[in-house]
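Practice problem: predict the structure.
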Amino acid sequence: MNGRLQLLEKVSGTPLILKFLQVDVHAQGFLAETSLTMKWRNPLENDVEAELIYSLGEGAEVCGYGIDINGSIVDGVVVPKEKARIAFQESTRKHESASIAETLIGNTFRMR
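Answer:
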């Protein structure tokens, strides 16, 4: 990844605190799979919507995504962009745990 790793509360820009980062790399020949496990702490007193923006190096791609909801990992699924945005917005309006990962430009991604 390029740049810095920072998760910001969407409205105020308050940074959330990275409590744990585990990086696992499995290499075979010319290929490598890197998995990141992150745990963040919200310093605010209320639930927040946060945003993580990151870039991958040339030739790298995202091949999986999951979030922990109440102690269980929920794997992300690929759906058309508009369908994903509608589902995310509906879930957040209901105050349900939700997440969305999107491609921004080139190899830069955003997770909310």
